[in-house]
Amino acid sequence: MIRPEVVAGFRRWQGVTEGLALVLFGGWIFSGGTLVWQLPGLAVIALGLGWAVNGWRRMRFQADPSAPGLIEVDEGRIRFLHPVMGGEISLNDLSELKLVTLRGRRLWQMRDLSGARLIVPLDSAGAGDLVDAFASLPGLSASDLVAALDAREAPPGSTLPATGHSEHLVWTRPGSGIRPV
Known about the structure:
Layout: H1 4-12, H2 14-30, H3 35-61, E1 70-74, E2 77-81, E3 87-90, E4 94-102, E5 105-112, E6 117-121, H4 130-135, H5 142-150, E7 166-172
Antiparallel strand pairs: 1-2, 2-3, 4-5, 4-7, 5-6
Helix pairs in contact: 2-3
């Protein structure tokens, strides 16, 4: 009955909408008038704002799944299910995370301590689950990930040619021997 594009748009904004609804509910509680109602109302408002901000950050990672493959994050492992370039990498062994633009497609390039690489398109199904997985890495926050998504140009010293290809080093594991370029 409802068009699939409309449903997909609502699902994309779901976290932000839930957070704003919680803020409104907290405002209603706050308007109870006495201090007994105002303190819990402020707590619910703060919770709703945090929920909305988290939903906004997750929304940045949830694109229309137009790339082939499926991303799964389970028990500290990232799996990319794809018939040709699929693979798996452990978050505990991850040593480097790059955001690469290649032929107009944006990809996460991950390298573990043994040198094995996993390349995952940003617009694959399940890419929204990578936010929490990457945010659990030491020294990397969700705001760093959002800033990396906003970076459009290759940083100086990039190893890829400047012909529409770029790479952005987002994170390296401290003590891994890898230095940012």
